[in-house]
Amino acid sequence: MRDVAVVGFAQRQMAAFDGSPTMVELLVPVLGELYEQTGWAKGDIGFFCSGSSDYLAGRSFSFVSAIDAIGTLPPVNESHVEMDAAWALYEAWVKIQTGEVDTALVYGFGKSSAGQLRRVLSLQLDPYLTGPLWPDTVSLAALQARAGLEAGLWDEKDLAAVVARNRAAGTANPHAVLSGELDVADLLAEPMFADPLRAHDCAPVTDGVAAVVIAAGDRARDAAELPAWITGMQHRVDAQTLGMRDLTRSESTAGAAAALDLAGIDTAELHAPFSHQELILRRELGLGDEVAVNPSGGALCGNPMFAAGLIRIGEAAARISAGTSRRAVAHATSGPVLQQNLLCTLEGGR
Amino acid sequence: MGKQLSAVIGVGQTHYRAKREDVSIAGLCREAVDRALADAGVGFDDVDAVVVGKAPDLFEGVMMPELYLAEALGAVGKPLLRVHTAGSVGGSTAVVAASLVQAGVHRRVLAVTFEKQSESNAMWALSVPVPFVMPVHAGAGGYFAPHVRSYIRRSGAPTHVGAMVAAKDRRNAARNPYAHLRQPDSTMESVMASQMLWDPIRYDETCPSSDGACAVVIGDEQAASGVENPAWIHATAMRTEPTTAAERDQVDPQAGREAAAALWRQAGITDPLREIDCAEIYVPFSWFEPMWLENLGFAAEGEGWKLTEAGETEIGGTLPVNMSGGVLSSNPIGASGMIRFAEAALQVMGEAGEHQVGGARRALGHAYGGGSQFFSMWVVGSERPTS
Asked: Strand locations in chain B, DSSP E?
């Protein structure tokens, strides 16, 4: 395998973006930041790949307008996944591994506020048997949280503690949509939103974009003082049928982790849109108390759909490049109740 | 490590029909997948990863349907990717699947594409009003007709060339048991007599709206050694340009020209007309055959129609084009590109049945999408690539 590293990362997050669902207006300055960070221009990028969803934008081909952010004359080598952009990063990493290109720019965007997100995401369910009942994402997550409560895997205080820790970490993140010092007792006094979840247990509906540049070997060393080397990337999917799996587990995360070396990880950025999901992921990854989980504040401080997974990778890479982490793991999720999961391990060094 | 050899080791497709109401989306995909696995002589346990491709989710009304399909496609516990690059997606999906093998990440990858247009309404899905974007209420035909008119004016092609393409493709489709529109008696005259829809495009010169799925299994060198007649992947290319730009040439798009140049270079081909034995080219409206012959470099600018008019694109001609009947005869949009790629593979595997081109050793699969702006293509061969 070729050595490939993250050498640039930029993002925007907000509660509601007052602009187009293709988010070209946000992508242009974000891509500009990447060119500034790397010292490169469009011509230095061998491959572009994006992640987004037509249903989120409420139209077909939203990614087709988004490519205007690249400027595709002269034409570019480009692809798109209808997934979180963390999987676009995976496609780009594979492309570099073929030896066809040495550099890639990956971006994701999502205007979650354009519709009623929890209902829009219901359309991901089996269209014949489950979808017609319109179970929404928050209600499904509540079923999952309830299953863990009844199995004695966590209690309501554990969930509130996850929220308090993430929101506090968010105070140091200028991109966080929600952040603040919160008290567990105060959180538990809040009303139920989807029993047993309170509103703060759920990621805020967030709009945003994120972009990452990756490069192989010396190209990476050219672009960054301290590249964040990708030491492994694995992803798996679980069955969707809700009765087919134990909702308190994430077999796909465990499967991906089993194919990676997680020894010595000091930092983890986990894409957990609901508080109890962080507990599921920690358990599957075997993360101990010595690991800093979500120093960025995680998805509970901001969760722009189709970009939030890539943001986890960017946040982990940024800490490697800043020298505050030596080995990190980033996680991205997609689909109802953690159906699909991706892990990326990163390491510092020239 | 360098790029690993890769080959198509199994091909499967459904019968293409206007409405496949006898199966669910999962059932439709499984018809193609089961045939592809059987053709490759492997089962789900032998597949390392699954790549799914389809055109806009609004075409079925299901958001990211690959999530619901994970179980039916045998993807549970494995990596699953979902590609969407507009009309070129069928080709792009095959390219992404091939790259997973070429990168040395996987040994066998299943690539599946589908469209079940009868589940929703494509005209609605393509007509959602978008602020600041010109609506295309006329459908794809209305969008592309001005490009065709421009081609005819620029090249001076006689106006019956489009009808010749349509009649050829529909007759070819009659030799393909999977094709949607099979018209053995189609002639240039019968096509010319059909209703004019978007001048100069007549009813018989347009693609149908189909339900269907196509799947291929792509393997590495070792996996390919287990099958009798793999289709070796000699080259792949993808290029993109914008929908709207004053300097674009939508008749002869730069992205298509550059993708073809990269493709021929990778395959070590200097004279495509001589070195390629047959081609499956994405032709949703008849005139795109001569237009793409030029864009791909099979003919000089303004000369593509001469190959068609001389009958050189018929089976038995210098460069048979769309032996399967092409998009003009079967069009499950998300799968249409992969069908081109798969049919090219079948030709060099010698498995194309009644529409086989004798002695086909190297074939082109081509797809395009959006406003003639997304291109994906591959060259497959009966022999291992030498370059």
From this structure: 6-13, 49-53, 80-83, 108-116, 196-198, 201-202, 211-220, 231-240, 278-280, 362-369, 374-381
- The answer to whether ipTM exceeds 0.90 is yes
Give me the pLDDT at residue B2, please.
Answer: 78
Is the full-model pTM beyond 0.90?
yes
Whether residue A244 lies within 8 A of chain B, CB to CB, comes out as yes
Distance from CA of B339 to the nearest CA of A (A): 19
Residues of B with CB below 8 A from A241's CB? 71
User: Given an 8 Å threshold on Cβ–Cβ distance, is A78 in contact with B239?
Assistant: yes
What is the CB neighbour count within 10 angstroms for residue A323?
10
Residues with Cβ within 8 Å of residue B287, at least 6 apart in sequence: B148, B151, B152, B161, B162, B165, B200, B201, B205
Say if residues A156 and A149 touch (Cβ distance below 8 Å). Answer: yes
CB B322 within 8 A of CB B166: no
Distance of alpha carbon A305 from alpha carbon A123, whole angstroms:
15
Fill in the DSSP letter of residue A350.
-
Q: Which residues are paired to A110 by β-bridges?
A: A208
Instruction: Provide the 3-class DSSP secondary structure of residue B140.
Output: helix
Cβ-contact B316, B172 below 8 angstroms: no
pLDDT tens-digit readout, B10-30: 999 999 999 999 999 999 999
Q: Give yes or no for residue B1 having a pLDDT over 60.
A: no
Mean pLDDT of all residues in A7-31: 95
Q: Residue B68 is nearest to which of A63, A77, A127, comparing CB atoms? A: A127
User: Chain A: nearest CA to B359, how far in angstroms?
Assistant: 31
